Amino acid sequence: MSDNKTVLVTGASSGLGAQFCRALAADGFTVIAAARRIDKLQSICEEIRSAGGQAHPLALDVTDIDSFKAAVDQAETMAGDIHCLVNNAGSSISKKAIDMTPQDFDFVMDLNLKGPYFLSTELARRWMGKGIAGRIVNVGSVSDRKAIPGHTVYGTSKSAIARLSQQFAREWINKGICVNTLAPGYIKTELNAEFFDTPPGQALTATMPRKRVGVPSDLDKAIVYLCQPGQDFLTGQTLALDDGQCL
Ligand SMILES: NC(=O)c1ccc[n+]([C@@H]2O[C@H](COP(=O)([O-])OP(=O)(O)OC[C@H]3O[C@@H](n4cnc5c(N)ncnc54)[C@H](OP(=O)(O)O)[C@@H]3O)[C@@H](O)[C@H]2O)c1
């Protein structure tokens, strides 16, 4: 285990989160892989450990804010102080704006914005108490700049989280805490794999400049860079990785 390289990744049981865990572990981070499906987390952690890395599964529902303190306590018991948080868990409900119910709205906002807000403050409070120069990476989306019909609340939540990174970055800048947003374009994962296998999904792919959808490992270098301890000149920014999809 390297100093100052313990990272908690939410939504680690599949897709981007699972690959973030693999990439960060390969860079020497001790990984706390958090999500609700503990069986999936266990197999990802075993895979990381067999490759020589350090990883621990953590059961965490990002919408259960009251559980955060105990969950972070448990993570610290397993791996010591956490130095970096990747707020990756997220989802959407695909409906026309006029069909979204208040419950649909809360589902998306609670998962994509409210959970990351309170998990970040839970860690930031501990970092301030211990003088840890923590790192937070919020996973946004290029839907913060491109309006996608059927995903109005999702796009709004991703714009909000990019703004939240700026607010946290400014409030905590003199505590040494850096907060940035990683905004991917379309990457094939459990979230959208079914769609990209349909004729409308293939038609969308055909409109992309390189006529391809990304794979999770396309983000490896960016996540490792944003989580790195020791560099503190980059904060409050959004790094978009979309293979030119928004150009
Ligand atoms: N794929 C893309 O094209 C794309 C593009 C831009 C941004 N993103 C963003 O990237 C992030 C990851 O998406 P993905 O594509 O990797 O999707 P995914 O494969 O569906 O993974 C979503 C992850 O979130 C977790 N999750 C869902 N609800 C949760 C909850 N209440 N508490 C804790 N964890 C929860 C899931 O784990 P459990 O079910 O086990 O809890 C799963 O690990 C999301 O924030 C998404 O908005 C994705």
TrEMBL record:
Coiled coil: none annotated. SMART domains: PKS_KR. One of its GO terms (molecular function) is oxidoreductase activity, acting on the CH-OH group of donors, NAD or NADP as acceptor. Residues 5-185 form the Ketoreductase domain. InterPro entries: KR_dom, NAD(P)-bd_dom_sf, Sc_DH/Rdtase_CS, SDR_fam. GO terms for biological process: fatty acid elongation. It comes from the Bacteria. Belongs to the short-chain dehydrogenases/reductases (SDR) family. This is 3-oxoacyl-ACP reductase. It comes from Paraferrimonas sedimenticola. The lineage of its organism: Bacteria, Pseudomonadati, Pseudomonadota, Gammaproteobacteria, Alteromonadales.
